[in-house]
């Protein structure tokens, strides 16, 4: 991989920091990638991002993975944060850019809205 390609890859990909997710008999480290479109502040990019957030939350709910997401600098793996509204673990997404795009925030908010809605219906 050339340096130019490596920079492009890093600049167009968000890495979700490893997260310890409770599983039967212990914990498993989980990582995921969220792909980005070139211009993240267009109406189309924001709409697509919301769709990705909704789809990801619905997939996680079906898999029994209930969590809420936020973003910022990575936290130590042993540091667990709990959402006070739902009691779900908070997954920290490391955003390489200190100024998140509108699409990034839209995807995060859509994901959390689905999780909170599911919680409200099933509490």
Helices and strands in order:
Elements (H helix, E strand, L loop, with lengths): L2 H9 L1 E11 L2 E10 L7 H20 L4 E5 L17 E6 L7 H21 L1
Parallel strand pairs: 3-4
Antiparallel strand pairs: 1-2, 1-4
Helix pairs in contact: 2-3
Description:
The longest helix has 21 residues, at 102-122. The N and C termini lie far apart (49 Å). The protein is flat. It has 123 residues and is of the alpha+beta class. The chain has one domain: 2-Layer Sandwich (Nucleotidyltransferase, domain 5), CATH 3.30.420. It has a 4-stranded mixed β-sheet with strand order 2-1-4-3. A hairpin with a 2-residue loop joins strand 1 and strand 2 (26-35). Helices cover 41% and strands 26% of the residues. Mean pLDDT is 76; it is low at 1-33. The protein has 3 helices and 4 strands; from the N terminus they run αββαββα.
Compressed to H and E, one letter per element, the order equals HEEHEEH
Arithmetic mean pLDDT? 76
Instruction: Provide the helix percentage.
Output: 40-55%
Identify the strand order in the major beta sheet. 2-1-4-3
- Unreliable segments of 5+ consecutive residues: 1-33
The structural domain count equals 1
Give the biggest beta sheet.
4 strands, mixed
Which architecture does the CATH hierarchy give at level 2? 2-Layer Sandwich
Considering the chains and any ligands shown, give keywords for the structure.
single chain; 123 residues; alpha+beta; Nucleotidyltransferase, domain 5; 4-stranded mixed beta sheet; 3 helices; disordered N terminus
